[in-house]
Design goal:
Number of domains: 1
Shape: globular
Order of helices and strands: EEHHHEEHHHHHHEEEEHE
Number of helices: 10
Radius of gyration: 19 Å
Distance between the termini: 31 Å
Helix content: 40-55%
């Protein structure tokens, strides 16, 4: 889950990973205009974006309690023994839809630990203790093997062979990373604390990337420059639940979350 930041003493907005990926999927569906090419193959890429973190489903359903915060474990605070299996379960799930969905999902899982294939300067696995690196190595090696096998499978069909041409494949991968990180921008930080932020390596085409800057302008409105969506303004929302830290002695986080109605946070994107 994600625990959105909150002003001191205020409840937090709690977002499941399926709610996070639903927001990313809304960005994917809206992406594309005269300058930015839309996702292609559209059906497979949008499905993958909407399910790229599906491996979290069981863990989110269990809703383990972080004893330090008395809230659900936040995304980056989840213990390795809980979070590691989610990275394999996501491509396991997406491959059932299509080999290309499985390939992009595997790349996403592998890339999260390895600087997003060079798109990020943060190589998570290098910051981990030796024991944690040893724990993750079989999974990471397995994903590289999975990717090789899926590429060989996709290469057999002339229609899907063009999807794995390196420039096109990484165009889709970079689109996924933009949708994911833009969703994180809204999911992880409450409205009053959001600041101007840049998103590098956003593809306009398979050959060209740009850096997109987002800037809050008030009244839940955000300018993007350059603007990558087909609709301007673009009204967007995401779901979650409001929750204050549980009192000591009350550890039934799952039972409490199950009783809380979903709420929405809405915002508007405009060209800057």
């Amino acid at each position: 889950m994600m625990v959105q930041s909150a002003p001191e003493g205020e409840p937090h907005f709690i977002i499941t990973m399926s709610e996070h990926t639903a927001l990313a999927g809304r960005f994917a569906k809206a992406y594309g205009n005269d300058r930015f090419e839309s996702v292609e193959p559209r059906e497979e890429v949008i499905y993958l974006v909407e399910h790229h973190d599906h491996g979290w489903a069981d863990l989110d359903a269990e809703a383990p309690l972080d004893p330090g915060t008395r809230l659900p474990y936040d995304l980056i605070e989840t213990p390795l023994d809980l979070i590691a299996p989610t990275s394999k379960r996501s491509p396991d799930f997406n491959i059932k839809r299509h080999a290309y969905c499985g390939l992009l999902s595997s790349m996403h899982s592998w890339g999260l630990y390895n600087g997003r294939y060079g798109l990020s300067d943060k190589v998570v696995i290098l910051d981990m203790a030796d024991e944690a690196q040893a724990t993750l190595k079989p999974f990471l090696d397995g994903e590289l093997a999975r990717q090789k096998k899926l590429k060989e499978e996709l290469a057999q069909d002339p229609e899907t062979a063009v999807w794995i041409e390196e420039r096109h494949l990484f165009q889709n991968y970079k689109q996924l990373q933009f949708f994911d990180t833009l969703a994180l921008y809204f999911n992880r930080v409450h409205e009053d604390a959001r600041e101007e932020t840049s998103f590098p390596h956003v593809p306009t085409t398979a050959e060209e990337d740009v850096t997109i800057t987002i800037r809050p302008t008030g009244n839940a409105t955000y300018e993007l420059s350059p603007y990558p969506f087909g609709e301007d303004p673009l009204e967007i929302f995401f779901e979650g639940r409001w929750l204050a830290p549980l009192p000591e002695g009350d550890d039934d986080l799952k039972g409490i979350l199950d009783k809380i109605d979903r709420d929405v946070q809405c915002f508007t994107l405009v060209s800057g």
